[in-house]
Each structure stands twice: as structure tokens, then as C-alpha cells.
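Aim 2 progress update. The chain analyzed this quarter is reproduced below.
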Amino acid sequence: MITHPRTEELVESVRLWIDQIRPTLDPRNAFLARVAANALATVGREITAGPAAEAAAVAGMAGVLGHEGDYATLNSELCARIRSGELSVETPGLLAALTIMARDQIAIDQPSYKPEGTAAPTP
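Predicted C-alpha cells:
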């Protein structure tokens, strides 16, 4: 049976290859290679952690808004209701939902970031 590499495996393979050849490059291209490798690492984390983060965000937003929906629709409504002042820090569940959404996105975008009062995540 023929199996194809998964997307995250392909991304990780290219990232590792870039890291392997980077020491042989001139300084400018070594920097650009590091940027490319970091971008691929972010893509890999988005592929693996993104679906769970989106599901948690949808659940949190649905809880605050009081109805179900997809991520884009709920996010748009949540933002509009915050901008209008209809939702505020006093809204039950809002800060908890926003905190979870922010932490999940930071874990994807900047996994070495250590929020105050927490241990640094392991990559």
C-alpha cells in the first residue's frame, strides 16, 4: 500500500533540511534561512495544534454569545459586540474565553513565550 507523507511531516522535513544547510550559508542567506525555518515551524504547529485551538475558541465564544456558529461568524460577532460596548470585562465568561484563545494562539505563534506566572512550554 502506498502512503503519502502527512503535511506536517513534509513541513518538518523541509524545516530540518533548512536548519541543516544554514551553517554553510553566507550571513544574509543564513538569516533568511532561519526566518524560513521559523515560518515552517509555525505552519507545523498551526497544522497540529490549530484545530484544537479553533475548537476551544468556538466553544468559548459560543458560551459567551449564547449560541453556536462557526469560528469566523462567532469571532466577527464577538468583536463587534466588544467594540459596541455590549460585552465588557463584566460579561460572564468573556475574559476566560479570550484568555484561552490568546494563550492557544501564542502557543502556536511563539511557543517559547512564557506568560507571567506560568512555566515555559516545552516545544
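Residues 27-65 form the longest helix (39 residues). The radius of gyration is 19 Å. These observations will guide the mutagenesis experiments scheduled for the next reporting period.
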